[in-house]
Design goal:
With about 140 residues, the protein is mainly alpha-helical. It has one domain (about 30-140). It has six helices and two strands, in the order E-E-H-H-H-H-H-H. Strands 1-2 form a two-stranded antiparallel sheet. The longest helix has 24 residues, at about 115-140. It is globular and about 35 Å long. Residues about 1-10 have low confidence and may be disordered.
Amino acid sequence: MPNIHNQPGSRQHSAGSPLPPFDVNWIKTGINEKTIEYADAAGKFLANEQLTTSQIRNIFGEMRRIQLNGFSKELTSFLLLKPKMAYTAKRNKSNGLNKLKEIFDMIYENIDKKNPAIGEVHYGHAMNILESILAYHKSHGGRE
């Protein structure tokens, strides 16, 4: 099994993180089995850190709304999610929200915001990752 810790496109989480590296290629080319393993680990971590489903859905719901209305049409709304996420994580000071912000930031930084057609594809891949994390969070006992 290849070690993705040393592969290009692999991003480490903050020091001491229990999560495997986040492969930015998942945003560019789509999910694979490693993405699902990552989503499982992330969902479990967020559930163990007492992050609620509604806290995840706050960001996920806004991202779904952007997706339904069209990424290029809602680009400004997407750009504003980064400061909103930073504010929410700082205000609540929870390990779970900080980790969700870290995951969001890696996703955000790797979505093409200059080319709408490519950005739309990247955005769809990002939504698949977030939806998987949300599902695993719930399966690991994440509370409402």
